[in-house]
Structure formats: structure tokens, C-alpha cells
Design a protein that fits this description.
single chain; 107 residues; alpha+beta; four-stranded antiparallel beta sheet; 1 helix; 6 strands; 13% helix; 22% strand
Length: 107
């Protein structure tokens, strides 16, 4: 029983909160920022925002990787070969050019 009491005493000592007696000094003339209202302004083109919808304007402007990929069905009866897309040039709703550049799948 003595060990239980000792353990309780040690746990209480560990969890006891001690207050520090230091208080911050009050400033005579505290500097503050008064209330204000902010106004958002739209950035000109090139601001980094894309507006939906994004539309591909010219299918023939797509760029493809030179390596080809072949996909075969599970049973091996069907297969097809294609070139992975490298880059697509599109336009967002604001008329800004949006370029999607895809990683080389063979890398």
C-alpha cells in the first residue's frame, strides 16, 4: 500500500501546474491597427488563376511523345498502339491560354 501512495504522490507532483509570477507591463500608448475594410481586385492576365470551363481550341495543336504504347486485352486477342499526349493548349473562360504538359510515361 505504501508503494501505491508513493506513486500517487509522484504522479501528482508531475501533473501539478505551477504559475509563473511574471506579468507583462502595460503600455501607456499601445499602438494598434484600427478597423478597416479590404477590397479585392482582379489580377490582369497572367495572374495564375484558371477560370472554368477550360476548352481545347485546336485539336491539331496537341503534341505527342515519340515513344508508342501498346495495350493488350487480358485474353491477348485485342491490342492497340497509341502515342501518349505530351502537351495540350487550351483556353479558359476568361480567354487566357492554359497549357497542360504531361510527363513522359516511359520515364
Amino acid at each position: 500500500m505504501a508503494e501505491t501512495e508513493k506513486l500517487k504522490k509522484e504522479l501528482k507532483a508531475l501533473t501539478r501546474q505551477t504559475q509563473v509570477g511574471v506579468k507583462l507591463k502595460k503600455l501607456k500608448n499601445p499602438l494598434g491597427i484600427g478597423p478597416s475594410t479590404g477590397v479585392g481586385r482582379r489580377k490582369p492576365k497572367g495572374g495564375g488563376n484558371i477560370e472554368s470551363p477550360v476548352t481545347e481550341t485546336d485539336y491539331s495543336a496537341r503534341e505527342y511523345w515519340t515513344n508508342t504504347k501498346t495495350v493488350t486485352s487480358v485474353d491477348g486477342l485485342l491490342s492497340f498502339t497509341y502515342k501518349p499526349i505530351k502537351k495540350i493548349v487550351s483556353e479558359d473562360a476568361g480567354g487566357n491560354e492554359v497549357i497542360f504538359i504531361y510527363a513522359d510515361p516511359s520515364a
